Amino acid sequence: xxxxxxxxxxxxxxxxxxxxxxxxxxxxxxxxxxxxxxxxxxxxxxxxxxxxxxxxxxxxxxxxxxxxxxxxxxxxxxxxxxxxxxxxxxxxxxxxxxxxxxxxxxxxxxxxxxxxxxxxxxxxxxxxxxxxxxxxxxxxxxxxxxxxxxxxxxxxxxxxxxxxxxxxxxxxxxxxxxxxxxxxxxxxxxxxxxxxx
Length: 197
What we know:
Layout lengths: L3 E10 L2 E6 L2 E6 L2 H4 L8 E10 L4 E6 L2 H10 L7 H10 L2 H10 L2 H4 L7 H11 L23 H11 L4 H11 L6 H13 L1
Antiparallel strand pairs: 1-2, 1-4, 2-3, 4-5
Helix pairs in contact: 2-3, 4-6, 7-8, 7-9, 8-9
């Protein structure tokens, strides 16, 4: 899986961009929310990425923030919502506004997105409601120069989710043990100790 790319922005042609990394040009499809924050071509940027492998193609999707990537991955797990529709959602509504709409049960806000009808919008709201209190904040990897990194707390939450903990549980465990001076490893260790109690 290609999780992040850092390289020179060679071309911007919404919804596509070309990122040159080590002499290789990666074609990446991105939501408009990411395009709005892109610098001029020739600049070095870092993007969160998600690779979709199909029988006929390998498609790479790029995001300016971890919150967008996380929301994209959650959306494509819903029946009837593929990558194109997920990108349309991210292009038409911010991740924060999306989660606010889900919490409020406002499926009507989602029907304004191309490709989403009333039934699909209602299904999205129902299936995403249990995740709405754990939406990832827009910290960490953003469209920026190299060297930008996730906070230790965000990294620890992502690691726990990678181990199979639900987002709400990962947030609860890390929130209970986190102190400002702790490293990612310390937060993970303490959170796992707490989980085993």
